[in-house]
Amino acid sequence: MKITLSNGTVVPVEMHKIRIVQKINLVPAQERLAALTEAGYNTFLLRTKHIFLDMLTDSGTNAMSDNQLAAMMIADDAYAGSESFYRLEETVKEVLGFNYSIPVHQGRAAEHLLAKVFVKPGDNVLMNYHFTTTKAHFEIAGGHVHELFTDEAMNTESQHPFRGNLDLEKFKACIKKFGADKIPFVRMEATTNLVGGQPFSMSNLREVKKLAAKHGIPLVFDGSLISENAYFMKTRDPSCAKLSIAEIVKEMMKLTDILYLSARKSACVRGGLMATNSKEYYDRILAWLPLYEGFSTYGGMSVKELEAMTVGLREMTEFDVACSSPELIEYFVTRLVAEGLPAVTPAGGLAGHLDAKRFLPHIPQAQYPAGALTTAIFLTSGIRSMERGTISMDRDAQGNDVLADLELARLAVPRRAYTMSHIEYAVDRLGWLYKHRDLVGGLKFIEEPKVLRFFFGKLQPLGNWGAKLVKAFEKDFGKTC
Questions:
Q1: For residue 296, what pLDDT band results from cuts at 50, 70 and 90?
Q2: Assuming Cys at both sites, which of 152, 188, 306, 419 could form a disulfide with 160, CB separation 3.0 to 4.6 Å?
């Protein structure tokens, strides 16, 4: 919740207290350099013992509530017919308005099932923007992914409140070009991860649904960050201002044919969910569930996680929970901008983002500026962030890099995990790095998987810039930081 201090400063105040803590370490920069070198300059391959603040992702890293942890103790460990599932099913009906629920072990499991059931070779899948695993699943199934983002989506210095909107004119053009029968569904992602966690508006969702329904095209909703998108609708859209988070969530779901989500985000639990009111869609998806996930009443999840998800789905509709991450991110981004750093605006859900093209303008995209920035951030702060740029794109059929629309360094802010002192530390170290940005160089691949290379690929710096950056850092902060 935002509170105005007596000096007029607006700050986010955590509406929770910390009762269980986990120790973290800040190892010296030379040790960080050795760890990064061993990890092939890939922050995914770093070990936790070398990390101070883990801002790689918010997936599965959020703090669970006391009620979620308590609920796990009453789980029914039946392989089939678990009462834990039926409690989840009832909550999905109440909170989301869907009669049919299918648990899956995480979001990409749902993407796999969507691809298996709905996407045929030659199909065209439309969306406001892709996510890495989503695109891979649909393309492996033979589909073509088309991103119908607005012009404002690529403006990282924007003040537009809904940069995640889908461009309706592009939607109409795709229907005319491909035909509705070659479009298995249109996908809306809330919030839009790869353009900076940006939300879409309620009016845009309504117009997308109206156009899709006119042509018999199902609307698929990625609700991994549904709570955050609802928060932005409430705080940025006057038509939603008087609605509760719960009412906004349910209104979005009325427009949705198939919901899927990674519960690791808004619901703060390790697992996933698919839901619909269509018996036809439910039956088609359910037929493949035992082969790829598990029985219908656990779907590849621990029943303890089912119980925690049941609580998490309810809690995510509380304003104090929905605002916990976006308001700390807004504070983070506001501080970065005040220090003159090229942060992505407006602040979105999920993370604070830095525009690597503006941060490191001397590094061409072919040398992976976003990847270089994430590694430089780790060297100078111990903070693990994630590359969201060309490294996150796979090569084309000819083996050439596919240059990303944006080059972003993503610093995720897991819900209820970090405090304002951590944010102030991050701002300080990022400010130092920005002043010494000319010391940062590019990267090149030395090991590269063919699919989703950003997970396991290894790189090396072009020149010995990592060591030079650490040397400059130690000159200012000493060898123990």
A1: very high
A2: 152
